[in-house]
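This protein record is not my work; I was only asked to verify it. The record follows directly below this note.
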Amino acid sequence: MITAEALTKRYGTTTAVDGLSFTAGPGAVTGFLGPNGAGKSTTMLLVLGLERPTAGTVTVDGRRYADLPSPLRTVGAMLDARSVHPGRTAFRHLLGLARTHGIPRSRVEEVIGLTGLEAVAGQRVRTFSLGMGQRLGIAGALLGDPGTLVLDEPVNGLDPDGVLWVRDLVRGLAAEGRTVFLSSHLMHELALCADRVVVLGRGRLLADASVRDLLERSAGAGLVRVRTTEPDVLARSLVRLGAEVAPQPDGVLHVRGIGAEEVGAAAGRDGVTVLELAAETGSLEAAYLELTTGSVQYRAGGAR
């Protein structure tokens, strides 16, 4: 479990993390979101004892990282998959990590198999593609069989099969009762694998909620889209039922307040032909953009 309480980190006059409090609990995948410059990387460094907080605390299983007797067996991390000596082979890199914690050679071989690196374990890391480097980073995080995983952009550079593998891996680790804390800019992927999300903006907490709650609060949630040959007739009937109706071009109505079945039934009673009928669902991307509208530090200009 990761627990942050009023966590703050300042660099001179710049506040990178500002009074951040959240918990990433066991048995769940917690997604970590925020625009560039929001403080995500700094927070992860604080979790792993690579930076010291200016104020507040962050602990893993109730202890600061520096106080863990065997860190690799408690929390595994992948922050930068490229931070490996390019002249070492994948096997030698993992074996070196293992020896610092008395982890047997058999576990090194096990995580190499788990991450699909058997065929390249004897190759030097400088020859690795970005995706292979990501797999090696994940192997290092898993090496100590820890109860907590901290993963920064774990699917970066992976092909579709690799992305699916990571999704299944983190869901499986959470199902075993482990804490999985991961950052990603791939909203669709997080929506599929995360149970909760923590959203940061300019170093401050914007949201700490379940994915389902965020989806229900997003702009598209609860919207029914219907296209008909007689939108005016159907709109009058739907308003009488208490719905909010917003006419759109081409005979389309956007309806809120009642479900798709009720819209279809109303059309049937009125003898109105329905060409399209769909209940829209919210998206994590829409919810994220709504939350971070005022917190984007680096915003691109319009195309010319």
Remarks:
- The chain has two domains: 2-208, 222-280.
- The first strand starts at residue 2 and ends at 11.
